[in-house]
Amino acid sequence: MFQKMFRKNLQITALFIHLFFLSPLLFSQKYTPIDTTKHEKRDAFLKEFNIDNETYIKEIKSKYDSKLAKYISNSFSEFSKEFGDQIKKGNFIFEDEITQYAYNILEEIKKNNLELKDIKFKILISKSHSLNAFCLSNGTFVLNLGLFYWLDNEDQFAGVLAHEIAHKVLEHSLKKKERDFREEKNMKENVTQLKKEKYNVSDKALALFRERLYENGNRAKQHEFQADSLGYKLYSRTNYSKSEYLSALKLMQQYDSIKPVGLPVVVYKKYFDLPNQPFNEKWLQKEDFSNYDYSKFTEKINKDSVASHPEAEARISRILSLFPETKTETKAYNPHKELYEKMNNIAYLETIPNLYFNEDYGLSIYASMLYLEKDNKNTAYFKEWLGKSFQKIYEARKNYTLNRYLERISPKEQSESYQQFLSFMWNLKLDEIKQIADFYTKQG
Predict the structure, then answer these.
(1) Kind and range of the H or E element at 125?
(2) What confidence tens digit (pLDDT) does each residue in 241-285 have?
(3) Which residue numbers in the chain have pLDDT < 50?
């Protein structure tokens, strides 16, 4: 994977930085979100996906001995079923223009690397807005729509794709399953031995679990380094700018290091001082966490040791040492500049609908407020989503299920700005939420 970004506070950081540092080209007319309810293309993909999986499992069974083949094929079958369920739920986009654009870049890389000509690849576009992509062991690339949201040009997008191609060429997914099979066997033996122990069993079990996590983390990091190197070699044979391969990694580093700009308090008064409901200062009251002592709690697992993606800085240094030509900044090739900018705008305006689709209603409200402050060309569009999201929050509050859709405050993990937002949301009463929902539904 190019980067792992699943935690919600990182999602928020993504929204911040994109708004305040990347400055997307903005649409000047009402945008209609991509319709993921059309079943024809989705069902066609699923049918072909299942056929390909059957073929792949036969290949696995012919390649490995019976026990290992059974382990890998069962694991892949289980994953494929869950993955297929995600496709049915509408978590992927089957928009010809977007998918074909990605395939065209894939073909550009393949035609300049003859060793790839016999490898079968498929592309699936995920609705996720994070800077991430990954490759399934059967050669299916899952590319997040967020790649277009984050990356500056086609060259960088090609760099991410080349990195994922390298994972497939190096068969990292299969090698991981081979190791998992061996380690599972060893783990069973270790557990059997632990059951015979009389003292400190829980500590020994944790030490065993931690050791396995760290070992897997280190191997995954090596896979990332390997994919960086081979990915660059594949990429460098194309006309894309060599320095842009590095630029994509620098973007990741920037993503992790820039302190996000938050929402000023005045913004709440701007959007929630309504004709039928004047702004109430009590909505902004925050709980005091200043005396809470976090030092009493220590992590039993070192997250840095188990992370599968090395820090971007380490990856950048390694590429610079192996491929010094990437130091020289050259102009992006970006052969389809206007088309890429169109993809960038689509990804930008799909952010709120995707958060809404994933039932992140609180985050969709927060993002809508951010976008309303930055983008004065799509005001009606974002007000519409603000109304829709508040309506869902109203329904959840009414049904006592708000915890499902709105986080509780966690000072250790959330920015001051997001804590203020959560305080505001939790301070609102049911009828106050309804007033806001109705107002912005009409505004939209």
Answers:
(1) strand 122-126
(2) 999 999 998 887 776 554 556 889 999 999 999 999 999 999 999
(3) 1-7, 20-23, 258, 294, 297, 300-308
Classify each residue of 81-114 as buried b or exposed e, where b means 16 or more C-beta atoms within 10 Å of its C-beta: eebeeebeebbbbbbeebbebbeebbebbbeebe
Phi-psi group of 114: left, alpha or beta (phi > 0 → left; psi -120 to 50 → alpha; rest → beta): alpha
Q: Give the strands of the sheet with 122-126, arranged side by side.
A: 92-93, 122-126, 140-144, 133-135
Residues 214, 302: contact at Cβ < 8 Å?
yes
65 Cβ contact partners less than 8 Å away, ≥ 6 residues apart: none
CA distance 89 to 5: 21
> CB count, 10 Å around CB of 195?
8
3-state secondary structure of 122: strand
pLDDT at 196: 66
Q: How many CB atoms sit inside 10 A of residue 116's CB?
A: 17
Determine the residue type at 214: Y
Tokens 């390694």, residue?
318
Is there a contact between 50 and 84 (Cβ–Cβ < 8 Å)?
yes
Of 127, 140, 130, the closest CA to residue 94 belongs to 127
Taking every pair of Cα atoms in the chain, the longest distance, rounded to a whole number of angstroms, is: 72
Q: Residue 224: which of 326, 116, 308, 320 has the closest Cα? A: 308
Helices 361-374, 416-427: axis angle to 10 degrees equals: 120
Q: Is 106 helix (H, G, I), strand (E, B) or coil?
A: helix
Torsion of CA 35, 40, 45, 47, to 10 degrees: 150
The whole-angstrom separation of Cα 386 and Cα 370 is: 11
Assess contact for 362 and 418: CB atoms under 8 A.
no
Residues in the chain: 444
198-209 pLDDT, tens per residue? 666 566 555 655
Between helix 430-443 and helix 379-398 the angle, nearest 10°, is 150
Q: How far apart (Å, rounded) are the C-alpha atoms in residues 32 and 409?
A: 33
pLDDT in tens, 273-308: 999 999 999 999 988 766 555 455 455 444 444 344
Give the whole-angstrom CA distance, residue 297 versus residue 370.
34
